[in-house]
Every structure is written in structure tokens, then in C-alpha cells.
Amino acid sequence: MKPKPSLRRWGVAIAATTATAVGTGAFIQAVHADPPPPTIEICCVDADVHGADLVSEHGEHVTLTNTGTDTVSVGGFYLVDAASNRLDIGSGYVIPPGGELRVYTGPGTNATTRYYNGRTSNVLNNDGDTLWLYTADDDLVHQYEYTGTW
Ligand SMILES: [Ca+2]
Ligand SMILES: [Ca+2]
């Protein structure tokens, strides 16, 4: 049995609204909802690149995209797979609207749209895996499942 990471989901806030008529006016009280989850999704997984999957610069990687209209800070976000392997995202990374960030398992030169974990063993199973994306505060952002490409 592979241990599953805990699926802590974003709380769904119930906006309770009470209206009290006072004379001719009315007061509306609303409970503030939790902030919405970040608009970051796991777009695609390149688990089996041409040749060795940990080749420098161009190895196996996960691509994250920002589907929203605001830049999102993703420093400290991390990915976990079904075997509890973890891929981190370095501090200070942001993804602008419509932009993407590639998170590599192996070594390479970090750049604005590429972050390398410098690991020495494969994480992304070539025959399929499930990935969970978490914020730095361990809140689940997105789940992504893929199968082998053959
Ligand atoms: Ca792989
Ligand atoms: Ca390969």
C-alpha cells in the first residue's frame, strides 16, 4: 500500500446572511468567506523525456499554469506523488496570468520559468502516477492523474 498524502481540501465557507429591518433601512451582515484557492493547476506532466529522465536541464518535469487573472506567488508550494515523493518550488517564484512554471526532478539551472530539484532518482513514474499540488501552508490546490503515453 502506498501512503496517500492527506487530502486537506479548501474549506467551503457558508456565507450566512442576516438582514434586520430597522425603520426603513436594512443592515446586511455577511460572514467573510475564506480566500479563494490559488488559480494554479498542474497542466501537464512530462514523465518520460527522450533519453535519461534526469538529464541536466531537460529531464522529467511537471508544468504548472496560472489560469487566473492575478500573478500568484508559488514559492514554497510543493508536489507530492502517490509514493509520497516530494518536489519543491523555490522561494520567490511567481507565475503571471497565463504563465507557466516547469518543476524538474533532476538538476539544471534555475530560471524564471524553470525550477530544478536536483534529485538523483526519478519521481515521475513513466507508466502513470498521481500528483497533488499544495501551498506552503499544506492546502491542497490541485490533483492530477496521468497514465503512460503508450
Ligand atoms: Ca520518469
Ligand atoms: Ca526517458
Automatic annotation (TrEMBL):
Can you tell which superkingdom this protein's organism belongs to? Bacteria
Q: Does the keyword Cell membrane apply?
A: no
**Which PROSITE patterns does the UniProt entry name for this protein?**
LTD (PS51841)
Where is the secretion signal located?
A: 1-21
Question: In this record, what's one Pfam family?
Answer: LTD
Q: Which residues cross the membrane?
A: none
Q: Which UniProt keywords apply?
A: Signal
| The keyword Signal is assigned to this record | yes
Where would I find the LTD domain in this sequence? 15-148
The name this protein goes by in its record: Lamin tail domain-containing protein
